[in-house]
């Protein structure tokens, strides 16, 4: 959770932001890029704002979007307690989850159930609405 999930989230959010609002979070037209600061980012043309996102050519084929902007869904096959212990020990993981930057699911291989971790609600059953906690009567 602390390395693969975090890195996958960074990559996913780069594509997400660049697709949702390429003008603000992407880098525009790759043909016009001028690299600045080594590898910090690019300028579009001979000036303007620093652009750090992905170029349109990485996201759009000229007719349609190649990447659908969705938040990353992570599925873990592990008991709830160790997952919660890792979340409690690692602030970055906790912040990504608590602020809704990704969706975390837990698959219980004993009974085949799937639970989703909802910020502020804990674990809810796979089909439960937000706020409806699992395991209740």
Q: How does this model look, in words?
A:
The chain has helices at 4-20, 22-25, 80-89, 91-98, and strands at residues 33-36, 41-44, 72-76, 102-107, 114-118, 122-125. It has 137 residues and is α+β, with helices and mostly antiparallel strands. The model is unreliable at 130-137 (pLDDT under 50). The chain has 2 domains: 4-58, no CATH class; 72-125. The longest helix has 17 residues, at 4-20. It is elongated. The relative contact order is 0.14. 28% of the residues lie in helices and 20% in strands. Strands 3-4-5-6 form a 4-stranded mixed sheet, covered by helices on one side. It is built from 4 helices and 6 strands, in the order H-H-E-E-E-H-H-E-E-E. The two termini are 31 Å apart.
Low-pLDDT regions: 130-137
Structural class comes to alpha+beta
How many strand units? Answer: 6
Task: Give helix and strand order, one letter per element, not per position.
Answer: HHEEEHHEEE
Global geometry: elongated
- How many strands, which pairing sense, and closed or not: the largest β-sheet? 4 strands, mixed
Summarize the helices and strands and which ones pair or pack.
Layout: H1 4-20, H2 22-25, E1 33-36, E2 41-44, E3 72-76, H3 80-89, H4 91-98, E4 102-107, E5 114-118, E6 122-125
Parallel strand pairs: 3-4
Antiparallel strand pairs: 1-2, 4-5, 5-6
Primary descriptors:
2 domains; single chain; 137 residues; disordered C terminus
């Amino acid at each position: 959770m602390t390395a693969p999930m975090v890195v996958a989230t960074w990559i996913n959010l780069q594509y997400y932001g660049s697709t949702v609002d390429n003008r603000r979070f992407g880098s525009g037209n790759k043909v016009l890029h001028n690299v600045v600061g080594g590898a910090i980012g690019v300028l579009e043309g001979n000036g303007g704002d620093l652009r750090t996102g992905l170029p349109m050519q990485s996201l759009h084929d000229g007719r349609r979007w190649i990447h659908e902007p969705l938040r990353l869904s992570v599925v873990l096959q592990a008991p709830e307690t160790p997952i919660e212990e890792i979340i409690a020990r690692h602030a970055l993981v906790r912040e990504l989850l608590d602020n809704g930057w990704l969706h975390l699911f837990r698959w219980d291989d004993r009974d085949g159930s799937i639970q989703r971790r909802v910020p502020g609600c804990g674990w809810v059953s796979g089909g439960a609405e937000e706020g409806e906690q699992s395991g209740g009567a």
